[in-house]
Each structure stands twice: as C-alpha cells, then as structure tokens.
C-alpha cells in the first residue's frame, strides 16, 4: 500500500460530482421518463407478479439499470479520458499499486451508481408504493451489481484506445445486456429460448435480486442470484487486476 | 562511494521492429546537473519513461537512488519527479486541487505548506484557484513542474521543459531549477536547445537510435569533438596553400581556420604574415555543443557506444 488510494478515490468521486447535472441528475431523469412512458403504455397489459402493479415492478429494474450503466460509464469514461488526454501519466508516475488503482476506480463507480440508484428510487417513491421488506438484500445487490459494471468499466477503459471503441463496447455489450436483463418484464414470461439466454446474463441476477428486496418476490432465489452475481464480479475483478498488474495498455 | 541518483544497465526496449533503447547503460551521480541530448526518436523519452515506470524495459535494470524501478517501484517513484514533455492536465480541477491530489497519490495528507511554497516560487499563487483549462501554456507547464515536486523528490527529470516557452519564463524556470540543484537535487534534462545544456549541465549523454553515442563532462566533450575556429578577414593577399586544408570561406568573406589552441592561433597568424597577407579583422570562435552534436549525429551511431 502506497497510501495513494484515498486521494485517487477522492479524485474519481470529485470528477463526477463536479458535473453532477450530467452524471447524476440526467440518468435519474431518464429513469423517471422510462417509468412514466412504460407504465402508462403497458400497465393494462402486463402483470409480472400477482399483486404488484407494473409501475411498482418497473422501479427496481429501472433503478438497477441506471446503476449498472452509470457504474460502467464512470470507470470507463474516466480512464479513457485520462488516457487520451494523457493526464493518466500523473497517476502512473505515483507509487499507486494495481490493487489500489483498481479499488479507487471501482469504489468511485459504485458511489456514483448508489447516488444515481438512490436518486431514482427517492424520486419515484412518493408516486409508487415500494414495500421494501428486505433492505439488506437491496444493499447486497446494489453493491454487487455496481461492482460488476464498475469492474467491466475499468476493463473497457483500459482496453479501449479510442472513444469509438469504448462506445462500441457500451452500445453492443452493456446496453443490450442491461435492457435484456428483465428490467421491463419478468424473464419467466419469455419463450423458453430467451428465458434460457437471459439466464446466462449476469446482469439479470442483479436486477432480479434487487427486485426481491422491494417485493419479496423474484424469478430466482436471491441467495442464488447473489452467488452468481458475486461470481461474475470476482471473475471480472480478477481479469482486470491481472491486466493492471501486467501494465496492459497503460505501461508500455 | 554514494549510490548513483540514476543507474541504468543494459536497458533495452523494442517497439515492433524499432529498438527504442538498445543496451543503454549510464550512471548519474547525486547532485549532478545532467543533460540527455539527441535528435527526435533517439530514445530519450523512452529512457525517462522507463525510469518512471511508464515503460517496461524488455531487458536490463534501471535504478533510482538504488531502488529498482520494477521490483521496488513504490520506493523508486517516491524518489523521482518527472515533468513530461507534452502539456497534459486534468480539466476537472483547479491548480491547488491538482497539487493536493498529486500529493495524495504519494500518500501525503497535509502538504499545504510545501504546496504554497512551490506555488509562490513558480509565480502560480495568484492562479491557485483557477481551473487548469484557464491557464496559459506556460502556466500549465509550471503546474506540471509543481506536480513533479509535490513529494520533494531528490531526483528531478525534465523532458524538454522549455519547448515553446517564452524567454522570460525560460529564465525563471532555469533559475529555479538551478536553485533546486544547488540544494542537492539531481537534475536530468533533455532539451533541443543545446546552449541550455552547455550552460547548465556539467555532464552530457548523447543518444542516437536507442544508444548512447557520447557520455562525458561537457568540457571534455567540447574539447574532444569540437575545436576553436580562427576567423579572419583579409585586407590584401591570399591564404597561403599550406593553410588551405580544412579552411572554409563564408558568404561575408571570412576565412574559417580550425585551430587547436592559443599556440596554433599565433602560428597561423605568423604563417599569414609571412605569406604577405594582411589581416583586417580577426576573431576566435569557442567550441560549441551544437557542433559536437552535429558531428556525433552525422557519424556512425555505434562508434562510441
């Protein structure tokens, strides 16, 4: 430990906080728009769980989707901006080890995700009743889901050399995986093939488990979801740390 | 004998087919003001980057104050400050925030007094609260120097610090760096302004194609590779044939006669007098580093390596 971790974490949190209108307020507004539009358009047609209104069903999924996307965006855009502008040199010249580097970027991504997620839930809580019988699960899935995407964001930021490469990663991997993770519907309602395909998507477990915290109902048992999501987080973290240790695309 | 400030042994680095570093070895003693010269692409920046851990050498070792830059990177980086060549900054932060964060990266919690001092010394105090984006190029460069100094490193490396910098700032920069050197900091400098290296540095390494082609004290390099030139303008008569070897004539009609030292100046003038030539004007040009540089770069890069 070099002792550089707190400063790097502080820098990463300040970085998004200083442009909070764009990094926090905007995703909260998007999530609310999704909620208003989809709940209005589909409320009459869909009942995912008995006794849970469609608008209620949507809230945890939208909140988690916003968290996943923002955790990814925070880590990946910070690293690629620093790489392209060149100011990453000041971090690389400091005695910050790979573990500290990883932890600082990851934790900042999680902080942004939690702020955005809390923003979404609090903004709609007075419109849509949210029972929340299991707050411990809420925290467990919030951290794990944000962790998976934070680690993936680091990975993408390290790997991408240009903004369009990162955009491709975001548009062709992160967006489809979050949209198809059961945000707008219960995966149980899908045809068998898509149900099976959805079960290969680790984001699905983060959303399903998160929803369990709010309603005490889910497609998959929450402990199973948490185990799978945690495994995905560990695998991505291991890979990212390996790349950081080797200096891949950072130390040439 | 004290540990060298920087010690490089057989450092090699390839990028595809290009040998950016081709078996470089050199030692810089503590307290030296050392210049690293060479044309673009000679490997200077790669060598500096390897010292800072930005580049991983394929082979060889690099040490800063005895600490290996790979196996003891934490200690090595604490002992080293590097001012990168390109102007880079983080547009999210003010000058003071930039320096506080940089201190934090080195684990320094309360560095305010030293930050204030550097800001003062680099005439940045009035801009402490300004966003980095709002600074001129010269100011950004000074902030970069400040960033390299936040952890008070004993070894400071400046990679072309005066490229595109105005005269006033250049003077201020050099007086500050000279003070740091006088206070015991080892300074390593790369520059394209050879007279800067000649004036400031006691020892010089010249690089070409990833190799060190000359490494000696500034004085010895000047003596070995350069010579004084006797410049004369004749009122009447002509150069005797015995003197003609190696003599060139410039556009203004000056004859440039290479001479080894003061004794040869006298002998040359005597020869001219005997040949009936009358000297109208005369001057002796001292050796210049630029000439050393040009000669070494024109020669086969392997001769001195």
Descriptive overview:
The complex is a heterodimer of chains A (252) and B (305). With 252 residues, chain A is mostly helical. Chain A has one domain (5-246). Chain A is 75% helix and 0% strand. Chain A contains ten helices and no strands. Chain A has helices spanning 5-17, 20-42, 54-85, 89-92, 98-125, 135-159, 163-179, 192-198, 202-215, 222-246. Chain B is 34% helix and 28% strand. The A-B interface holds A 2-4, 6-8, 10-11, 14-15, 18-19, 82, 85-87, 89-97, 247, 251-252 and B 15, 49, 52-56, 73-75, 77-78, 80, 82, 84, 86, 88-93, 97, 100-107, 147.
From the structure provided, what is the oligomeric state, counting identical versus distinct chains?
heterodimer
Rg over CA atoms of chain B? 24 Å
Apparent shape of chain B: elongated
Strand proportion of chain B, as a percent range, falls in 25-35%
Uncertain stretches of chain B: 301-305
What is the 3D form of chain A?
globular
Helix content of chain A: over 70%
- Number of separate structural domains of chain B: 2
CATH superfamily of the largest domain in chain B: P-loop containing nucleotide triphosphate hydrolases
Number of strands of chain A: 0
How would you write the strand order of the largest sheet of chain B? 6-7-8-3-9-10
Helix tally of chain A equals 10
The largest chain-to-chain contact, stated as pair and per-chain residue counts, equals: A-B, 28 and 32 residues
């Amino acid at each position: 430990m070099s002792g550089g971790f707190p400063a790097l974490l502080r820098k990463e949190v300040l970085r998004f906080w200083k442009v909070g209108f764009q990094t926090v307020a905007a995703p909260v507004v998007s999530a609310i728009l999704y909620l208003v539009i989809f709940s209005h358009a589909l409320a009459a047609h869909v009942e995912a769980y008995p006794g849970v209104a469609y608008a209620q069903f949507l809230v945890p999924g939208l909140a988690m989707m916003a968290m996943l996307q923002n955790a990814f965006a925070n880590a990946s855009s910070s690293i690629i901006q620093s790489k392209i502008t060149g100011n990453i040199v000041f971090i690389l010249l400091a005695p910050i080890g790979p573990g500290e580097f990883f932890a600082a970027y990851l934790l900042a991504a999680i902080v942004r995700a939690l702020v955005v997620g809390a923003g979404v839930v609090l903004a709609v809580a007075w419109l849509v009743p949210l029972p929340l019988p299991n707050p411990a699960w809420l925290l467990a899935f919030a951290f794990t889901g944000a962790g998976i995407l934070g680690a993936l964001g680091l990975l993408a930021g390290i790997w991408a050399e240009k903004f369009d490469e990162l955009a491709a990663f975001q548009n062709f991997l992160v967006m489809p995986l979050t949209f198809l993770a059961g945000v707008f519907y219960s995966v149980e309602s899908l045809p068998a093939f898509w149900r099976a395909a959805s079960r290969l998507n680790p984001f699905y477990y983060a959303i399903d488990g998160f929803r369990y915290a709010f309603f005490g109902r889910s497609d998959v048992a929450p402990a199973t979801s948490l185990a799978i999501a945690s495994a995905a987080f560990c695998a991505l973290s291991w890979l990212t740390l390996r790349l950081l240790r080797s200096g891949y695309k950072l130390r040439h | 004998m004290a540990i060298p400030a920087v010690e490089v042994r057989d450092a090699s680095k390839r990028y595809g087919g290009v040998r950016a570093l081709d078996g470089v070895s050199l030692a810089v003693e503590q307290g030296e003001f050392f210049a690293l010269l060479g044309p673009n692409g000679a490997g200077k920046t790669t060598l500096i980057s390897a010292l800072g851990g930005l580049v991983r050498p394929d082979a060889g070792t690099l040490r800063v104050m005895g600490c290996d830059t790979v196996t003891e990177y934490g200690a090595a980086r604490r002992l080293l400050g590097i001012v990168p060549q390109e102007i880079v900054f983080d547009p999210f932060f003010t000058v003071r925030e930039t320096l506080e964060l940089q201190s934090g990266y080195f684990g320094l919690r309360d560095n305010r007094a030293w930050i204030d001092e550097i800001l003062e010394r680099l005439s940045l105090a009035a801009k402490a609260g300004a966003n980095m984006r709002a600074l001129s190029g010269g100011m950004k460069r000074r902030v970069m120097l400040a960033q390299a100094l936040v952890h008070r490193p004993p070894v400071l490396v400046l990679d072309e610090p005066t490229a595109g910098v105005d005269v006033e700032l250049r003077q201020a920069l050099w007086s500050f760096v000279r003070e740091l050197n006088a206070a015991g900091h080892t300074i390593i400098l790369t520059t394209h302004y050879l007279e800067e290296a000649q004036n400031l540095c006691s020892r010089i390494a010249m690089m070409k194609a990833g190799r060190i082609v000359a490494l000696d004290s500034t004085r010895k390099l000047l003596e070995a590779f350069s010579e004084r030139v006797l410049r004369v303008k004749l009122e009447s008569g002509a150069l005797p044939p015995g003197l003609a070897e190696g003599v060139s004539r410039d556009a203004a009609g000056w004859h440039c006669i290479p001479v080894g030292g003061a004794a040869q100046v006298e002998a040359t003038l005597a020869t001219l007098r005997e040949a009936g030539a009358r000297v109208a004007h005369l001057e002796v040009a001292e050796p210049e580093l630029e000439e050393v540089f040009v000669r070494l770069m024109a020669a086969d890069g392997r001769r001195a390596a």
